[in-house]
Amino acid sequence: MSFTIEKIVELVGGKLDGDGAIEIFAVSSLEKAKIGEISFFEKADLSELTKETNASCLFVPENFEDFLPCTLIRVKSPKLAFAKIFEKLHPQKSPTVKIHETASIASELKEIRAGFVGEFVTIGRNCRIGENSQIFGGVKIGDNVLIGSGTIIYPNCVIYDNVSIGDDCIIHGGAIIGADGFGFVRDGANGYVKFPQIGSTVIENNVEIGANTCIDRGALGETRIGEETKIDNLVQIAHNAQIGKRVIIAAQTGISGSSIVEDDCVLGGQVGISDHATLKSGAIIGAQAGVLPNKIVRAGVWWGTPVQPLDEYKRQNAHVKGLARLKEELKELKHWLAELSGKIDN
Amino acid sequence: MSFTIEKIVELVGGKLDGDGAIEIFAVSSLEKAKIGEISFFEKADLSELTKETNASCLFVPENFEDFLPCTLIRVKSPKLAFAKIFEKLHPQKSPTVKIHETASIASELKEIRAGFVGEFVTIGRNCRIGENSQIFGGVKIGDNVLIGSGTIIYPNCVIYDNVSIGDDCIIHGGAIIGADGFGFVRDGANGYVKFPQIGSTVIENNVEIGANTCIDRGALGETRIGEETKIDNLVQIAHNAQIGKRVIIAAQTGISGSSIVEDDCVLGGQVGISDHATLKSGAIIGAQAGVLPNKIVRAGVWWGTPVQPLDEYKRQNAHVKGLARLKEELKELKHWLAELSGKIDN
Amino acid sequence: MSFTIEKIVELVGGKLDGDGAIEIFAVSSLEKAKIGEISFFEKADLSELTKETNASCLFVPENFEDFLPCTLIRVKSPKLAFAKIFEKLHPQKSPTVKIHETASIASELKEIRAGFVGEFVTIGRNCRIGENSQIFGGVKIGDNVLIGSGTIIYPNCVIYDNVSIGDDCIIHGGAIIGADGFGFVRDGANGYVKFPQIGSTVIENNVEIGANTCIDRGALGETRIGEETKIDNLVQIAHNAQIGKRVIIAAQTGISGSSIVEDDCVLGGQVGISDHATLKSGAIIGAQAGVLPNKIVRAGVWWGTPVQPLDEYKRQNAHVKGLARLKEELKELKHWLAELSGKIDN
């Protein structure tokens, strides 16, 4: 696959500055780009390093003012244009239809049109898998699982019974979807009785799920991940959590049972959301922050445990850092007061 | 399986209020319950929502005062009664004895009575697996592993050599039991020498272990998880940790080497316990809290890093939040003092 | 394998105190050691417990002054000597060359000299695996993967395409090496476009990687883990991170994209390093600490979120703990001032 630069401008927009007839074959980084490759640069002026790129074409910001010995495409967001042209230059190939001979597929299967089913895959009863989906080696799929078309499940993932996964999802290696939620009822000295974990897990279209991430099934209801949501590695999403559309969840974050994360939220890494909390649409939670049970967090940027608006957090942090000075001032006041007191007594 | 409501009262206790002859077939949530199903409600009065349940029977608190058009069973803990009747209505079936033809089982096997061994399972030498246990697809079991009866190991778990797992345990997908502990001795500029990790891991009866959780083997001694302890997903338990009975450990918590968590402790999510710490029986540690090395934490509720008693933590947090006001007061005092000083000098 | 104590002194150094002719067969803990076994003790004087060891030989510190009824070897670091003699007494055996019949190995394979390839392993095209390496059951290896000699990959790991792993590495069960980094570009209301994740992952020699740990591939460049670095369980290392040599990373720590951790750093558990941060050689980061984006952290001990030098952190913590007293003092000053003010007005 290749495009002329003119064609690229047609595909992703922007203003051409230079020779549009050059053929582009691949994307690359500034440092590694070779002739015939396209890269991007996000600042208006160049560092020394950048001047040495061998790329044949660069996406640059509209206000880019420096000189570069290659064709430029001026765009609003060079990074976005770069990501878009990558998709065009390297489209996901329709896999050669192939069910590996070692895959173990239940005979009570409803319908399997997957493009690829790899080695040592197990697929349970009454499953449906859509066209062009790829199930890599060692994936274990339970009973009554629905998987849409164009979805990729990387090696050694486990999909429990009754899970539903949409179209064009990517699920990375070792992810566990639909395991029992963590629910027990204390029975005095007898220990714990397991609360039923018989609900379902629904992953909507275009969701990406990171390596070794865990998304539990609902207890009685469902756990749901909305369209276009992107989840990083080692994330925990507990039973009955409701994650909206276009939510970004960075690595090692944990979302407790029955919590709601509305559309377009962004969660940093290692964030903890307690049970029954609600993040309203547009909330942005800084890394390592913690949200208390039942809290409602409005749109805006939040940080700390328990979370505070970022400005407040910063102000408070500054106050804490000023404590040594505060103590000093108090001491000075005391001296002054003692002095004054002496004067009066005299 | 089904019971009349009268039979249910007999099985889990409570006071019948309504028609006891109705047959119950399944548990469900308030919202989704249909005729013939039982649910539960934990408050004394009803929300609008609840009035619309189609359940045939509800567990309610003893002091429940509202009206509902279905049979009620008044109990001390509706949720506990519900969990108990779930177990009776949906008993774990004895699996049809089946060793899948693709499973690879060492011939030097001591004794295997497991109900089910799934596809692509590997079992090493000198293992013993008890009756009715189920080893799902892709599980890898090393040498000299003992597994009791009625235990379920979900797909793609890894059980290293010399691990011992009791009866009626549940181990969720991707959990890794008995990997080497993390121990190295610095050898100056040469880097690190690996400290021997040749101990064992013991999981007692009725333990549940979450998806992708890791429990390391002892270095020279053993790592032990006590009876009835429940561990959530993505938890890390390091070498030589001693976890007592009926301990609850929420997701993404980490327990460092040689730490002791005594019986009936509760640990929230993302808690960090440093090495050689001791949580005394009944300690409750709030989410994201951190316990320092060698600390002894008494019974009670603790929060923050380093952990403090919850009351102290809250008081301190209030003080910090009051810092802006404190600075203001100090400023006022200074003005007052300056004024007074002026008066005196005049 | 066995050595006389004299031979052990020759192998790991130290000063012999007692009978050097005794034969030693194994290492063990003080409590469990039997005749013919060697253990170690790190303090200069004995606890009651220690007096009861049945070990035939103990490594003790040079200044050890107590009496023990067994041969002693006085060394600078008893633990290091113990770890070293363990390696000598229990050398890793060259595995019997065996490719399990169920392993699925692409025919376009470049070169495979591995000592052991276990059950249900998949190896892709153009891979090279060095001598004496062991690939345990269920491991999935993609295309164009290089693995050195003497490396052990435990069950159910996933190695994506284009990953390079050096000699004598140990990768524990369920680890995922080379999954896509977490990179998306927001495209307004349309959601997110995936940023290309087409770089590589390089693991140098003598690296140990814990169970269920995830190390992503570079976006356009590479993610690199330096020689002799040791990584615990459930750690997240994001795209393009550069981890130096002899770095220690404890469990559940997360290192964000493009961060640099220089040689000989030590990171406690549950630490979070934001993107584009740099830890200079010799930085030691306490458990649960957090480093902000783009920060440069010098050598020394750091703690808290955001990280501070340990001393500062402690001082600040003391100030916060003193806030109740500070408020009290302010109140007293106010009373004093009011009193004084009264005097003046009279």
What does the model show?
The structure is a homotrimer of 346-residue chains. With 346 residues, the first copy, chain A, is of the alpha/beta class. Chain A folds into three domains: 3-89, Udp-n-acetylmuramoylalanyl-d-glutamate--2,6- Diaminopimelate Ligase, Chain: A, domain 1 (3-Layer(aba) Sandwich); 98-310, UDP N-Acetylglucosamine Acyltransferase, domain 1 (3 Solenoid); 318-345. Chain A has four helices and 41 strands. Chain A has a twelve-stranded mixed sheet with strand order 8-11-14-17-20-25-28-31-34-37-40-41. A ten-stranded parallel sheet of chain A has the order 9-12-15-18-21-26-29-32-35-38, with no helix packed on it. In chain A, strand 22 (184-186) and strand 23 form a beta hairpin. The radius of gyration of chain A is 27 Å and the shape is flat. Chain A starts with a strand and ends with a helix. Chains in contact: A-B, A-C, B-C. Chains A and B meet through strand 22, strand 23, helix 3 and helix 4 of A and helix 2 and helix 4 of B.
Task: Note the topology.
The structure is a homotrimer of 346-residue chains.
Chain A: E1 3-4, H1 5-12, E2 15-17, E3 23-24, E4 26-27, E5 37-40, E6 57-61, E7 71-75, H2 78-89, E8 98-99, E9 104-105, E10 111-112, E11 116-117, E12 122-123, E13 128-129, E14 134-135, E15 140-141, E16 146-147, E17 152-153, E18 158-159, E19 163-165, E20 170-171, E21 176-177, E22 184-186, E23 192-194, E24 200-203, E25 208-209, E26 214-215, E27 222-225, E28 230-231, E29 236-237, E30 242-243, E31 248-249, E32 254-255, E33 260-261, E34 266-267, E35 272-273, E36 278-279, E37 283-285, E38 290-291, E39 296-297, E40 300-303, E41 308-309, H3 310-321, H4 323-345
Parallel strand pairs in A: 4-5, 5-6, 6-7, 8-11, 9-12, 10-13, 11-14, 12-15, 13-16, 14-17, 15-18, 16-19, 17-20, 18-21, 19-24, 20-25, 21-26, 24-27, 25-28, 26-29, 27-30, 28-31, 29-32, 30-33, 31-34, 32-35, 33-36, 34-37, 35-38, 36-39, 37-40
Antiparallel strand pairs in A: 1-3, 2-7, 22-23, 40-41
